[in-house]
Design a protein that fits this description.
Order of helices and strands: HEEEHHHHHHH
Helix content: 25-40%
CATH topology of the largest domain: Beta-lactamase
Oligomer: single chain
Strand content: 5-15%
Strand order of the largest sheet: 1-2-3
Structural class: alpha+beta
CATH superfamily of the largest domain: DD-peptidase/beta-lactamase superfamily
Radius of gyration: 20 Å
CATH architecture of the largest domain: 3-Layer(aba) Sandwich
Length: about 220
């Protein structure tokens, strides 16, 4: 472990990475658990702690949404080759409506890489036309995705798309008639013993701390 310790100290001291936490276990026992560098650099320095939590960001697509879709497929609530029009009737007769779950999972469904949906989701955003709940704003965001034209014919190329996984998340919720966060907690995190892995929702309960200082900073948002 000495080589790993030296490597991470050099990486954080040189600024290659702001900080890191390493936990090594063998046969169910933790044998190495160290924190290095900073959990935040601005607006002030905050040292990393062994219990600092990290935003897993786009790994959510694999850990949560994909896992739950495969469960739904296994339980015959949906099929990977189901077309989106089955879940979003308003897309019937459109290229997006013919796109399949499998294609969205593979990032070959024709959707753009991203869209500034924060303008719809944030209550003070310029494209937000409601003061209703976050759930209503999320519905508006989905409608925005459904109304956007495809950027390429499905299967013509591979383009990493967060938009496709937003639609897939709603399909999971439609299949189970439960929120994605609750499904992940009950069907994935708890069975795997992931007690510190959860969603932090703006309008719902979470098992995670509310204080920002419990988390490593993800990016600077001036």
């Amino acid at each position: 472990m000495q080589a790993l310790d030296t490597f991470l100290r050099q990486a954080t001291d040189s600024g290659t990475v702001p900080g890191a936490v390493v936990c090594v276990a063998s046969r169910g026992q933790v044998v190495w658990h160290r924190a290095y560098g900073a959990a935040a650099l601005t607006p002030e320095y905050r040292p990393m702690q062994c219990d600092t939590l990290f935003d897993i960001a786009s790994l959510t697509k694999v850990v949560a949404t994909t896992s739950l879709l495969l469960l739904a497929h296994h339980e015959r609530l949906c099929r990977l080759d189901d077309a989106l029009q089955h879940f979003y009737p308003q897309t019937c007769g459109t290229p997006l409506g013919s796109t399949t779950i499998r294609q969205l999972l593979a990032h070959t469904g024709g959707l753009a890489a991203w869209w500034p949906l924060y303008k719809t989701l944030r209550p003070d955003g310029p494209a937000c036309h409601t003061t209703s709940s976050a759930g209503v704003r999320r519905h508006q965001a989905v409608q925005t995705i459904l109304q956007e034209p495809l950027t390429y014919p499905p299967e013509a190329q591979t383009l990493y798309s967060g938009l496709g996984f937003i639609l897939l998340g709603y399909i999971v919720e439609t299949c189970y008639k439960q929120s994605l966060a609750r499904l992940f907690r009950e069907r994935v995190a708890q069975p795997l013993g992931l007690h510190c892995t959860d969603y932090r929702l703006v309008d719902g309960a979470s098992s995670l701390p509310a204080s920002p200082t419990a988390y490593a900073a993800t990016e600077a948002c001036p």
